[in-house]
Specification:
TIM Barrel, 42% helix, 8 strands, alpha/beta, binds 3-methyl-2-oxobutanoic acid, 2 domains, eight-stranded parallel beta barrel
Length: 289
């Protein structure tokens, strides 16, 4: 550019395909707000997922089922304002795509067009292939998500590892093939045995990103709040905790409370002054000693 300012290149879907071919691991993480978007983008992450996990880790819902399109839209917009480099995926909440192909296209369009996301993600395999195909045909890139699909964990028998038996493993494999055929550009493999994830990764042309899918996936994703210790309700086996920022923030707030109570805050460096003559005149005029 010549002006000394460094040009930041947006990561494209074609770059992800290239990374798979070259055996370069893909990194992905969730973010839900403007500051989180700034942090993970500055760190150099490849893909940011504005996941419906926000329902649990940011909004305090019991699970992801109650999350609405309005909530997803607002958080997607906030993250988009922060991100310069990473590819941003907007997650489609439960019942925003399950009813019909028309509904799926309309709501994918809202996250893509109004929210500004670079692509959308939805959960489900063969049973969702028609919706995925229709969204892709409408011109919106789709990230697939199979294995454990939290929105429909109820019919999967709860938050359990999927595809452990021969029969169930073949079903997950067929889900992957169906989504590849439908046109997904990448696929999340959640909570499946690493051997199965390895087979899928080898057999399909699009990148796989694992969360509880083991090391053989083309990339890895974690929920930000899990890995920075901000979500304490439960920690799945596949989570690695990299920092305890809950305790860091807790201690900072406790220190602030102590400082205020003991008059240690604000200090002179945090306070504003006016000229002595003005103080003198003000007090005189107001009758203050
Ligand atoms: O919503 C989310 O954060 C997700 C991840 C678990 C992949 O779907």
């Amino acid at each position: 550019m010549g002006s000394g300012s460094e040009e930041i290149k947006k990561l494209m879907i074609s770059d992800l395909g290239k990374m798979k071919k070259e055996g370069k691991k893909i990194t992905m993480i969730t973010a839900y707000s403007y500051p989180q978007g700034l942090i993970v983008d500055e760190a150099g992450i490849d893909i940011i997922l504005v996941g419906d996990s926000l329902g649990m880790v940011e909004l305090g819902y019991r699970d992801t089922v109650p999350v609405t399109m309005d909530e997803m839209l607002q958080h997607t917009k906030a993250v988009m304002r922060a991100v310069k480099h990473a590819h941003v995926v907007g997650d489609m909440p439960f019942m925003s795509y399950n009813i019909s192909v028309e509904q799926a296209i309309t709501n994918a369009g809202i996250l893509y067009k109004d929210g500004g996301a670079d692509s959308v993600k939805l959960e489900g395999g063969q049973e969702m292939a028609d919706k995925v195909g229709a969204i892709v045909k409408a011109g919106i890139p789709v990230f697939g998500h199979i294995g454990l699909t939290p929105q429909t964990a109820g019919i999967l028998g709860g938050f359990k590892v999927q595809g452990k038996s021969l029969e169930r493993a073949k079903k997950v494999f067929d889900d992957a093939l169906a989504l590849e055929d439908a046109g997904v550009f990448a696929l999340i493999l959640e909570a499946i045995p690493q051997q199965l994830a390895g087979i899928i990764t080898e057999k399909i042309s699009v990148p796989t990103v694992g969360i509880g899918g083991g090391l053989y996936c083309d990339g890895q994703v974690l929920v930000l709040h899990d890995m920075v210790g901000l979500f304490k309700r439960f920690t799945p086996k596949f989570v690695k905790i990299y920092a305890d920022t809950y305790t860091t923030q807790l201690n900072a707030v406790k220190e602030f409370i102590g400082d205020v109570r003991e008059s240690r805050f604000p200090g002179t460096e945090h306070s504003f002054n006016m000229k002595k003559e003005v103080v003198y005149e003000l007090k005189k005029q107001l009758g203050v000693d």
